[in-house]
Amino acid sequence: MKEYLGRGILKMISAVENIINTFNLYRKLDIESFLKSCESGVPCQVDTTYSGSPINNITKGLPKSIESICPECNKVIPARIFEDNGKVYMEKTCPDHGYVKDLYWSDVELYLKVEKGEFGDGRGLMNPYTMYRGKCPNDCGICGYHSSHTALCMIDLTNRSNLPIPIYLRGVFDTNKIYEITKNQIQDVLQLCRAEKPVACRMVQFSGGEPTIHPEFFKIIEISAELGYSHIEVNSNGIEFAKQDFAERAAKAGLQTVYLHFDSVDDELYVKIYGKPMMEIKKRAIKNIAKAGMEIVLMPTIVGGLNENQVGKILYYALENINVISGIDYRPVSFVGHISAEERERMRFTLPDLVRCVEKQTGIATKKDWYPISFVTPVSKIIKTLGGAEALYVSCHPHCSLGTLLFIEHETGRAIPITQFIDLVGMFNELNNLAVNIKVSRFKRFATMNAFYKISKYFKRDKAPKGMDFTKFLQTIDRFYDTEKDGSYLNKTLGIVGMHPMDSYNYELDRVRRCVFHYATPTGKIIPFCAYHSGHVHQNYIRNLFSVSKEQYDDNLVEKKQISFSEACKIARKILEDAEERRIQFAEEEAKHIAVWEDENDL
């Protein structure tokens, strides 16, 4: 029983959160602050980060004032979030560029509901890479003001791709420069998140461009495993995985999960986006990935007016292939560059729109079945308590994500949301309280059994999949124990998550400061996802610093095939010298930028 409770609840984090598998990532608790905050009725909120920076609890309810940025100049400006006709909007005014209003969440009821799925902040890093100097989000590093640990380390391997840029991103990226991290750089970059204290990051995901075309892709996977990453993922369009040999080599190197771009089940859309059909390639990739023993998570980018009609079809496709597909990570589009108000209104797709499409197009899950990723933090707390190890939990902002977990009934194949037979609100609130009580108990075994029986009351057996009791529920989400020895019991699960990265129009600094998806970079800095891709767009600075011209890249590839080792060393030294010169130039430009920013903000 204790084994199932420990392992089962451990996997519950992964199940509810789905694709980021954060069951082995916990947070260290400040017990005194924890007890004090719980006694006062605050959901276990700590006061400061490990660096001593104050943590302000999330402002709840509407309307409210927040910090945002101007989408034209990136200057930090105040913004207001408010309800209008059942929807949630953000409005802000830049003194230089005027008024902007944008749809934030298309359902105010759901917006307010997910705020209840917040159980307090983390405390960030004990060893931040940048000291907080009041310049968020422009001076990332990560700094001591950031209140979350890294749950998922992300690394851009290259900006090259073997597919055309999607039509909704064309004209944004500079395709004449090549950014490609080297095998020598990758070890230092991977170490950044592994060196975090109090908890080293254990999960890494490689992205791009198309990371699988990096010439050292397999070696990079091997290095990741050697450095202690226990879960290694890649974000891919699937073209290389359509080759069986490639999939087998990737699995042998240590790759465990492929996040497969999957914007549609119809070739008509792929032809429109990329100029070529892709479904047969996707199908071969899925077959090869599964045959090699790796997991598959479908990752559709959903654009309003383009492919929102594919949401249900993609869900049905995953259910039809439940033996090989473990989850779907829907990504509502975030805008890059200047987008007119008319285009934003047409293309904007928010997390409540995802919930609406799933219900309308499938009827499988309704609005009551969805919760934010941060809702699982009490589970992390009690695992830390039972296990005794240093721990972090996924303390991201509740408005960053929504998710649910479908259990597939063994005999009928019916998909049943977890919320239909588990009172998640009651269970997680119970776990939140138990985490304190078990911590101070001298009888851990008794406390564990007590926890099992206390949370089992939130299981509704009459509404669960046929043949499931509470122990079998824990066994199912454990994944380590899918079947009983006689093979008579089995439940597959499908995690559905919506992750909505911010853009400059709906930017919220409170979300950046709580981000748990971080990019490790060759500059020696770790950048939150939405600061890397939007706002100040640190990605552009980093890529410019380490890029070479397409001509130089192509010439080096040719020369490396024909020249001697000594000549190759000369070329390598020259490239490093050029990179150092660009690094110095970048630092000077950044210092000028910060000085201008300080003047504008009277710092």
Structure description:
By secondary structure, this protein is of the alpha/beta class. It starts with a helix and ends with a helix. The chain is globular and about 65 Å long. The relative contact order is 0.15. The protein folds into 2 domains: 2-55 and 115-522 and 528-533, TIM Barrel (Alpha-Beta Barrel); 563-600. Strands 5, 7, 8, 9, 10, 11, 12, 13, 14, 15, 16 and 17 form a 12-stranded mixed β-sheet that branches. Helix content is 38%, strand content 16%. It has helices spanning 2-17, 31-39, 108-114, 183-194, 217-226, 244-253, 267-274, 279-291, 311-320, 341-347, 351-362, 377-387, 424-440, 444-456, 470-478, 509-513, 529-533, 538-546, 550-560, 565-600; strands spanning 64-69, 76-84, 87-94, 98-105, 152-156, 177-179, 203-207, 231-236, 257-261, 295-299, 301-302, 325-332, 401-408, 415-417, 492-499, 517-520, 526-528, 547-549. Strand 16 (517-520) and strand 17 (526-528) form a beta hairpin. Helix 6 (244-253) packs across helix 8 and helix 13 (424-440) runs antiparallel to helix 14.
Q: Number of folding domains?
A: 2
For the terminal residues, how far apart are their CA atoms? 58 Å
Query: Average pLDDT, to the nearest integer?
Result: 82
CATH superfamily of the largest domain: Aldolase class I
What percentage of residues falls in helices of 4 or more residues?
Answer: 25-40%
* CATH hierarchy, class of the largest domain: Alpha Beta
Spatial shape: globular
Runs in which pLDDT lies below 50 for 5 or more consecutive residues are 1-43, 480-488, 558-566
**At CATH's second level, what is the architecture of the largest domain?**
Alpha-Beta Barrel
Structural class, please? Answer: alpha/beta
CATH fold group of the largest domain:
TIM Barrel
Q: What is the number of helices?
A: 20
